[in-house]
Amino acid sequence: MDEDSQVKHSKYFFLIAFLAVLAVSIYILRGYLISIISAMILAYIFHPLYRKLHQYIRNRSLAAFTLSVLLVLFTLIPAILAANALVNESVKFFHEVNQFDNQDLIDKVSMLLGKNVNLDFYLKEVLNKLSLYIANSTSNFILSLPSKILAAFIMVFIMYYLFKEGKEFIATVKGWLPLRPHYKERMAQQFDQVVYAVLFGIVVTAFIQGIAGMLGLWVFGVDSPILLGLVMVLLAMLPVVGPWLVWFPAAMLKMIDGDNVNGIGLLVYGLLIVSTVDNIIRPKLIGLKGKVHPVIVLLGVLGGLTAFGLIGVIIGPLILAITIEFVKIYLKEQESMIP
Hints:
By secondary structure, the protein is mostly helical. The chain has helices spanning 3-29, 33-56, 60-99, 103-113, 119-143, 145-176, 181-219, 225-236, 244-256, 260-290, 294-308, 312-337.
């Protein structure tokens, strides 16, 4: 075998071996990929905060540990407060439902339809299914807690090291990219713009939804509108959940108490105003600040949620924006090659 053939076979062997090892590595880490990606994005977002903290805490390890703990606390405390408020509202809701005398409602429906309707049976069926769904969801959540705690620990552990060694890590990744220096800067700039634009869009939209929800609760006579409005702000940052967990039971309780005007008013307001704010405002905010078309943002958010869960709200638009940037670079390179 001549030297050229040997070099050629060596390259093929290296490529095949590299792809095989990469595939096995992804298979090994498949259960923790979301935690790893989440840690990388969160570390990137909060790295400026780490740099400021490092000015006061000169030890890098201690500064990284302190910030990691603070982030966990600032996540857990609002989550616990929101969960407590939701549990209290849920208990109140089910208590009211169980005490509800539906005979008046049955009589009204029978009068409207002109015949007797076994509404009691249908109401009990709906409530039984709702109770069963909540019980199953709670049970599944409790059973999945060990894996969720492990995933959260892995995410915080990786985040700690990324805070410590993030500067070197980013420099290494930039060095790996087989792109011209000005293209690398463009990619880094696009990454920055999209990540912080998505974060800005999520936070601002959540506050707008929370304020809109709070106004609706106040106008339609629901108790503690400010507290519940703050809960809606937190829930609005979780797209899979959303503020409907507050305004929908509140509307149902109003109707159960016989206050149909306020109950139906809050239901319509919640559906038309509170639940549509994020679909209209968030893509526009992210699009303007990140210089990405709102359609790309919306598709990225929805697709990212399906593929990656909650962190997909950031990952989805980011991947699509970077893909578009790669296409632009490719087309520009192709143009420069035309004589």
